[in-house]
Structure formats: structure tokens, C-alpha cells
């Protein structure tokens, strides 16, 4: 029987990796991710997890070690944050291109400079095009469940793409929450034993990730892009199976109080729950406001998003990262692109807030929604504003 315990979210993620029976953990500690890999090191040292912990000198080395272990057929895990993710940036591309089903937790953190250890989405937005499946958790329960799921989807023979589970630094990683931990039997039922169909074998040497010439590179990347897009049916299928085993349902796109709404606010990550309080308050005032949560970031859920916003007049998008010199925030930019051919597409207004870990309170979400409606009514398509900037 599953047990419900109060536990720090980082430690819950570590518990999920342990219950997934990872074979190799290669990671370098960096705030706010450190508690995850410290806990895993303890599990391995205590004999609670039969795995190899590879101590490395940097995040670049961590991902490099993951390439080797995954290619050899080991269930492989790592975790990082902020500048650490950017240091391994070069190797992150290789993992996806070689179709190695590595699972990584990113404890989302602001990027320098100035130096910040606090959370926003700058780090993951910088690697959005690297070819990894990417999903966002909103709370500790989701962080646990989606970590188990990440191994399942990454290792599916129809997929074989590395997978990132994003959880907001400090706002989620260091919070203690009540989390339902399933039994090992339930996890084993959902997550079969890992067997990589193309693992390296010294008795049958092969070349992986070899050099190529211009005449073939385009075809390789096209194949990779199509294969990543084609993972969507398997993503939905495995999320349905997760719901059957654990009793908790997750979708690529989710809505809250969206029935009859004329305005939706789109959010990602832990602030989605704060935004829902503002939506509930505005609904109580008679305003036709709802929420759409973008849970899956890559592959991008185009059709699911279009269905969620169908008939909506205004769409307010929260970004927790800024595209310097660009059109505001990366999420709002992608939403506009995704909906450009939707008949009667909503007027989209972007807001950038919560940078460097700054809190966004429910009343500030109320202000954001009301101001966004005003801007949309004025016809300011494609506009964006930064909330809470001190003059």
C-alpha cells in the first residue's frame, strides 16, 4: 500500500530515482539541485540502491559520463541547475542525437550575470532546442511521479530520447510537502527492466555519434526531428498508464476553470498553483477568466494547446525568462507561433515576471490578468511587459 509522508521535494525525487532502480548516477552538486544527488549518494553508500555513483569534476563531465553509461545499456540519471546546465550544454545535444535515454532533473535556476542561485526558467529555455523531451512539475507529488515516468518514456523502444523533468529551484526543490510514495511493486509494474536495443558490446564493436559530411547532416537532423515529434502518442499513452497505476492523471496541456472563459492565463511550473488562486478569485467576482497549464514543453503540444484555447478571446502568457533583444519571453513567442493559423486566434499578451526567484503573489497575478485584459482590449497584439520592475 502506498504511504503518505512529509518530505522535501528534492529528497522525493531522489526516492523516485532509487525506486526506478537506476544503475548509474553521474552528477556534480550545484545549488539548488544538490540535495538530490547528495541523497542518492547516501542511498548508494548505504546499499539501498545498487548503482554506481560517478564523482565528476564538472557538469560537462557528468553528462559525458552519462553518455558512456547509457550507451552501454545502464539506466542512467543525472541532475543539475542553472550554470551547471549551461556547462553541460555541448554534451546535452549529443545525448539526444545518439538517442540515449538518460533522465535528468533540472532544478530551474536563473543564469548569470548577475550571479543568482534562485529560480527562474532561464536555464531550461536556453536548451529548449537540444532534442530532449522536456516536462514541468508543479508540486512535489508531480516531481516524484514524473521522475518515474521520465524513465518509462525515455526507455520506450518507440522513443529512446533523453528526458528532462523541470522543477522550480527553491520554490519547489526545498519545500517540504505531503507526498504519496507508491510501493516498489507498483513502480516495477509501471517501469519494466531496462534493455537498450542498441547497447555497446565489446564483442561487436560499433561506432556511435560519428563524424558526418554536409551531404548527410540535414537528413540525420530531419529524421531526429520527425522521431521526436512522433513521440507524442507514446507520451500520452504512458501518462495514461501512469494514471492507472498511481491514480494521478497528467496531460501535455491542462486547464483550470476554463469552461466559458473569455480570458486564459498560461503558466508553467510551480507558479501555476499560485495563478490558480488568482483565477478563482476573479471568477468569484464574475469575470470570465480561466487558466491553461503548459506541462509538456518538448515536443511542443500544438494540437492540445489549440484545443485548450479554442474560442478564447484573450490569452495572457507568463514567462519566467527573457529573450534579450527579442520579442519578450520565449514561451509567449512560441505560443504566438503555435496559434498563428488558428481561426479567430486569441489576442496574446505576454508578461515577464518571477525572474531570479522573485515571488509572484496571488494579488499580483490578479493585477497581471486585469492589466493583460486592458492591453488586449486596446489591440496591443504581441506586446509584453515586465511585472514588478522597481523604478
Could you give the topology of this structure?
Layout: E1 3-8, H1 9-19, E2 24-27, H2 34-45, E3 52-55, H3 59-71, E4 76-80, H4 82-87, H5 89-97, E5 103-108, H6 122-125, E6 133-136, H7 140-155, E7 163-168, E8 176-181, H8 184-190, H9 214-229, H10 232-246, E9 253-256, E10 263-267, H11 271-284, E11 289-294, E12 296-298, H12 302-309, E13 314-319, H13 330-338, E14 347-352, H14 362-377, E15 384-386
Parallel strand pairs: 2-3, 2-4, 4-5, 5-7, 6-7, 10-11, 10-13, 13-14, 14-15
Antiparallel strand pairs: 1-8, 6-12, 9-11
Task: Provide the descriptors you would attach to this structure in a database record.
391 residues; alpha/beta; Rossmann fold; 2 domains; six-stranded mixed β-sheet; 14 helices; 15 strands
Describe it.
The protein is α/β, with parallel strands linked by helices and 391 residues long. The protein has two domains: 3-246, Rossmann fold; 253-386, Rossmann fold (3-Layer(aba) Sandwich), CATH 3.40.50.920. The protein contains 14 helices and 15 strands. The chain has helices at 9-19, 34-45, 59-71, 82-87, 89-97, 122-125, 140-155, 184-190, 214-229, 232-246, 271-284, 302-309, 330-338, 362-377, and strands at residues 3-8, 24-27, 52-55, 76-80, 103-108, 133-136, 163-168, 176-181, 253-256, 263-267, 289-294, 296-298, 314-319, 347-352, 384-386. The strands form three sheets. It has a seven-stranded mixed sheet, sandwiched between helices. α1 packs across α2 (34-45) and α1 runs parallel beside α7 (140-155). The longest helix is centred in the middle third of the chain and has 16 residues, at 140-155. 47% of the residues are buried.
Amino acid at each position: 500500500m502506498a504511504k503518505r509522508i512529509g518530505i522535501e521535494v528534492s529528497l522525493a525525487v531522489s526516492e523516485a530515482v532509487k525506486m526506478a532502480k537506476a544503475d548509474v548516477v553521474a552528477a556534480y552538486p550545484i545549488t539548488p539541485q544538490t540535495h538530490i544527488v547528495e541523497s542518492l549518494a547516501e542511498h548508494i553508500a548505504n546499499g539501498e540502491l545498487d548503482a554506481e555513483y560517478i564523482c565528476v569534476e564538472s557538469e560537462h563531465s557528468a553528462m559525458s559520463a552519462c553518455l558512456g553509461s547509457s550507451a552501454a545499456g545502464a539506466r542512467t540519471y543525472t541532475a543539475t541547475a542553472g550554470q551547471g546546465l549551461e556547462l553541460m550544454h555541448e554534451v546535452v545535444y549529443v545525448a539526444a542525437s545518439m538517442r540515449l535515454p538518460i533522465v535528468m532533473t533540472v532544478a530551474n535556476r536563473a543564469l548569470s550575470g548577475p550571479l543568482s542561485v534562485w529560480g527562474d526558467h532561464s536555464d531550461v529555455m536556453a536548451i529548449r532546442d537540444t532534442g530532449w523531451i522536456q516536462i514541468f512539475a508543479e508540486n512535489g507529488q508531480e516531481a516524484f511521479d514524473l521522475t518515474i515516468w521520465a524513465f518509462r518514456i525515455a526507455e520506450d523502444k518507440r522513443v529512446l530520447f533523453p528526458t528532462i523533468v523541470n522543477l522550480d529551484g527553491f520554490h519547489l526543490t526545498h519545500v517540504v510537502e505531503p507526498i504519496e510514495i507508491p510501493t516498489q511493486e507498483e513502480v516495477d509494474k509501471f517501469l519494466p527492466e531496462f534493455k537498450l536495443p542498441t547497447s555497446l558490446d565489446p564483442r561487436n564493436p560499433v561506432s556511435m555519434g560519428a563524424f558526418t559530411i554536409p551531404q548527410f547532416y540535414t537528413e540525420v537532423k530531419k529524421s531526429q526531428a520527425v522521431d521526436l515529434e512522433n513521440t507524442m502518442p507514446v507520451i500520452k499513452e504512458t501518462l495514461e498508464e501512469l494514471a492507472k497505476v498511481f491514480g494521478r492523471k497528467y496531460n501535455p496541456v491542462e486547464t483550470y476553470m476554463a469552461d466559458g472563459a473569455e480570458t486564459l492565463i498560461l503558466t508553467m511550473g510551480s507558479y501555476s498553483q499560485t495563478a490558480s488562486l488568482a483565477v478563482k478569485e476573479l471568477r468569484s467576482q464574475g469575470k470570465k477568466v480561466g487558466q491553461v497549464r503548459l506541462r509538456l514543453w518538448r515536443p511542443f503540444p500544438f494540437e492540445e494547446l489549440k484545443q485548450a484555447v479554442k474560442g478564447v478571446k484573450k490569452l495572457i502568457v507568463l514567462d519566467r525568462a527573457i529573450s534579450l533583444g527579442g520579442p519578450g519571453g520565449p514561451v509567449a513567442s512560441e505560443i504566438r507561433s503555435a496559434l498563428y493559423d488558428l481561426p479567430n486566434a486569441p489576442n496574446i499578451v505576454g508578461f515577464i515576471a518571477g525572474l531570479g526567484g522573485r515571488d509572484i503573489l496571488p494579488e499580483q497575478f490578479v493585477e497581471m490578468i486585469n492589466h493583460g485584459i486592458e492591453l488586449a482590449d486596446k489591440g496591443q497584439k504581441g506586446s509584453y511587459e515586465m511585472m514588478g520592475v522597481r523604478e
